[in-house]
Design goal:
alpha+beta; single chain; 10 strands; 6-stranded mixed sheet
């Protein structure tokens, strides 16, 4: 009787295991199918990435070519007559269209008046010109006729009006007597607030 009972239990166990094995095999086949699908999707995405990278490289080459043609290079500081002028900030007011450009001047020579006595102007990348008249220029927080002292940083501010929001300065120039350009700075981003 024990042998028959053992035999019945072994047959039942085998049948159960066989059913489990069939389920596992089905699951393995389903997972293998999913893996093939995912592999195909990954290859397709890699192809798209390669295409996009190629397009980015083309655009970078075209941009470099345009910059070379336009001769765009950023100039944030320049030294003229032993005075080093450098851009500190360009801040635009979205509501009023006013742009305040702040420069720092360091006189490396003898005490002297700055050459910015007749205002300044800037061009945007659309070809528009914006003027800053001499009464809108401040040297050291005073008038535009203040002396630049030897080896002392002096803040110079210029106010431009009527500038459209999101404008970027292509070239900003300052003038001395007779309208001659004193110095130019190029490719200045305006921080619009």
């Amino acid at each position: 009787m024990k042998k028959i009972l053992t035999l019945i239990m072994c047959v039942a166990f085998s049948a159960t295991m066989f059913g489990q094995t069939a389920k596992v095999e089905e699951r393995v086949k389903a997972l293998e199918g999913d893996a093939k699908t995912l592999k195909g999707q990954a290859e397709a995405l890699q192809g798209q990435i390669a295409t996009m990278q190629s397009r980015l490289n083309e655009l970078a080459d075209r941009n470099a070519e345009y910059k070379k043609q336009l001769d765009i290079r950023q100039i944030l500081s320049v030294t003229v007559d032993s005075v080093k002028y450098g851009i500190v900030s360009a801040i635009g007011d979205r509501k009023t269209g006013n742009v305040k450009v702040t420069l720092m001047a360091l006189n490396l020579g003898q005490d002297a008046y700055p050459g910015i006595l007749h205002g300044a102007s800037f061009n945007d990348y659309d070809g528009n010109i914006y003027m800053c008249h001499e009464d809108s220029v401040s040297v050291g927080g005073l008038s535009n006729y203040e002396v630049l002292r030897h080896n002392i940083n002096t803040k110079i501010t210029m106010m431009f009006t009527g500038v459209p929001v999101n404008t970027r300065i292509s070239n900003i120039s300052s003038y001395r007597g007779g309208g001659a350009t004193y110095f130019s700075l190029r490719d200045i981003k305006i921080d619009w607030r």
